[in-house]
């Protein structure tokens, strides 16, 4: 079902616990070094991609591993960024199907043309969050293949962080709850999620802040409730994590922020049952 609104050239943001989707026009270069894997598209034209130590390249679609340091020059065109699940199941599924370019960066998502056309149509005429999630899932995994397994101990830690995101639950406490040593938890968490526990926690606090804004809280109120010390702390984390200023997204949403807290699990067709996996936005 389409959301009734005028077709305007403002940004569009969907938030689900498992994934996040941004579609909008971005003028300034984006410095990616995020705490979750992401699919990035130049919707109408290729993006110029710069990676330290490599020549600049142009691609319509990219898969970025967590922590990959990539500069993207959108030049004001329509860009889409889908931030994938925290436990790396989307990333492992997609990376096996895409062309490896350099470590941590893959190009040419399968079904790229149709994916980009869907994103362009969505930007002009948004859908309800549940409908978007279903269609996004169909583009990410059109064959409905099983998703790679996640370590249940890391799933539990991620869920614990999500449930008490405003608290800095110690690594020692988290390790004890899953019967691991601190060093082993740190190793497994980074191997599964791609970034350290502290960085993931900050990343998920961004997601929680946006859900608060969607409920009518001010940005400062939502940021503090999510565990940030103040709005400046939120803005710094946002810029360092997403490579953009909050104003690049928030100022142009114009009512096009959609949150659905119910789409939190690995799709049932994966055969693994509910995973309780939060998306890290």
UniProtKB/TrEMBL annotation:
Residues annotated as domain HTH araC/xylS-type: 155-252
Example of a GO MF term: DNA-binding transcription factor activity
SMART domains, A to Z: HTH_ARAC
Keywords: DNA-binding, Transcription, Transcription regulation
Role noted for this protein: Regulatory protein of the TOL plasmid xyl operons. XylS activates the xylXYZLTEGFJQKIH operon required for the degradation of toluene, m-xylene and p-xylene.
Stated name of the protein: Helix-turn-helix transcriptional regulator
Species: Marinobacter salinexigens
């Amino acid at each position: 079902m389409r959301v009734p609104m005028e077709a305007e050239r403002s940004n569009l943001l969907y938030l689900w616990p498992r994934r996040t989707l941004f579609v909008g026009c971005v003028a300034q270069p984006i410095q990616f070094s995020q705490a979750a894997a992401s699919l990035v598209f130049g919707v109408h034209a290729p993006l110029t991609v710069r990676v330290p130590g490599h020549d600049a390249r142009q691609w319509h679609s990219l898969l970025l591993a967590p922590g990959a340091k990539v500069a993207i020059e959108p030049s004001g065109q329509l860009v889409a960024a889908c931030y994938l699940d925290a436990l790396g199941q989307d990333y492992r599924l997609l990376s096996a199907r895409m062309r490896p370019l350099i470590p941590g960066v893959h190009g040419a998502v399968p079904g790229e043309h149709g994916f980009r056309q869907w994103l362009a149509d969505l930007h002009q005429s948004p859908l309800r969050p549940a409908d978007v999630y279903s269609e996004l899932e169909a583009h990410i995994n059109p064959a409905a293949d099983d998703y790679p397994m996640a370590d249940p101990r890391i799933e539990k830690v991620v869920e614990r962080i999500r449930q008490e995101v405003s608290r800095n639950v110690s690594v020692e406490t988290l390790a004890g709850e899953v019967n691991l040593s601190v060093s082993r938890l740190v190793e497994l968490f980074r191997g599964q999620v791609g970034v350290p526990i502290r960085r993931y926690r900050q990343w998920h606090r961004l997601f929680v802040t946006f859900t608060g804004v969607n409920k009518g809280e001010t940005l400062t109120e939502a940021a503090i409730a999510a565990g940030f010390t103040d709005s400046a702390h939120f803005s710094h984390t946002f810029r360092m994590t997403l490579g953009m200023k909050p104003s690049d997204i928030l100022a142009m949403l114009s009512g096009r922020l959609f949150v659905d807290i119910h789409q939190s699990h690995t799709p049932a067709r994966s055969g693994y049952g509910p995973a309780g996996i939060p998306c890290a936005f």
